[in-house]
Write a structure and sequence with these properties.
Elements: H1 3-16, E1 20-24, H2 50-53, H3 56-61, H4 63-76, H5 84-94, E2 100-103, H6 109-113, E3 118-120, E4 123-130, E5 136-138, H7 139-147, E6 162-166, H8 175-183, E7 189-193, E8 211-215, E9 228-230, H9 234-244
Parallel strand pairs: 1-2, 1-7, 2-3, 7-8, 8-9
Antiparallel strand pairs: 4-5, 4-6
The chain binds nicotinamide-adenine-dinucleotide.
């Protein structure tokens, strides 16, 4: 099917399938300036092995090195703004087409775009916690400690090491992940956006939905089973989708 036909088919699916949820990955944020993991050349996996650098083992073994490697990357997300794909998903929720967004991203851009029902299955960068007493603090406190020379950053109450509320490799999954599996029960349409669908257990979520659409620049292991696969940049697809639905996004968002 040609691209205009794909957009028309996606608009039809959105008009006819409720509830519909979106499942997003790092690819939805590349147009906001945040590199994904697996894109050739720019993907982070071409530079670091996240299992070695963003794992619980790495944090426990050498927390100071863990922050040296990861903190600059995480704080760099702060200058980034939602793009048309994030903005369209927020608008589709307000219009009643989309019931919510399940995201693997920790960048917070769905909330910033105005999405209200968001399940951040790999956590977020708003808070951190003490690994010893579980005391909770703003993530900014952790950043300030490291920047002012306290690396690893420590809990002011018990002296334990602070860690971000993101799901590291080897961590248990978040409460949001288990909540997402619940909301997907009865999901009629799942729109996957910008995910290679290779990181488990999230990559198994499409099997809970009746119909699956994939919007991803590169092929995924789910393409064969999907109802519709659009291999294009997400920002363009969502801009065209909103026009097809008669709800065009304003220029520049
Ligand atoms: P991934 O890197 O494995 O796959 C991203 C996919 O997005 C690729 O298949 C690529 O073809 C596609 N893509 C890239 N830019 C695109 C665009 N503009 N439009 C459409 N498709 C595009 O990402 P993943 O599946 O999310 O898994 C990586 C893991 O890394 C996730 O668990 C996530 O938590 C984490 N991560 C998060 C961020 C973030 O918060 N923004 C960034 C990097 C990694």
């Amino acid at each position: 099917m040609e691209y205009p036909g794909q957009i028309a088919a996606l608009a039809d699916l959105l008009r006819n399938c409720r509830p519909c949820y979106a499942l997003t990955g790092a690819g939805i944020s590349t147009e906001s300036g945040i590199p994904d993991f697996r894109s050739p050349g720019t993907g982070l996996w071409t530079k670091y092995d996240p299992i070695k650098t963003a794992s619980l083992t790495a944090l426990r073994r050498d927390p100071a090195k863990f922050y040296e490697i990861n903190l600059t990357r995480w704080t760099s997300y702060r200058g980034c703004r939602p793009n048309n794909a994030h903005l369209a998903l927020a608008r589709l929720e307000k219009l009643g087409y989309v019931a919510g967004v399940i995201t693997q991203n920790i960048d917070g851009l769905h909330r910033e775009a105005g999405s209200r029902r968001v399940w951040e299955v790999h956590g977020h960068l708003r808070t951190c916690r003490c690994m010893k007493c579980a005391g909770s603090y703003p993530f900014d406190l952790l950043v300030e400690r490291v920047k002012s020379g306290q690396n690893p950053p420590l809990c002011e109450k018990c002296g334990g090491v602070l860690r971000p509320d993101v799901v590291l490799f080897e961590d248990r999954m978040s409460d949001d992940f288990f909540a997402a599996t619940q909301v997907l029960t009865g999901c009629q349409l799942l729109i996957v956006v910008g995910s290679s669908l290779t990181v488990y257990p999230v990559a198994g979520l499409p099997q809970l939905a009746r119909r699956v659409v994939i919007i991803n620049r590169d092929p995924t292991p789910w393409d064969e089973q999907a109802e519709l696969v659009i291999r294009r940049m997400a920002g363009q697809v969502f801009t065209d989708l909103m026009t097809a639905l008669g709800e065009p996004l304003e220029i520049g968002g």
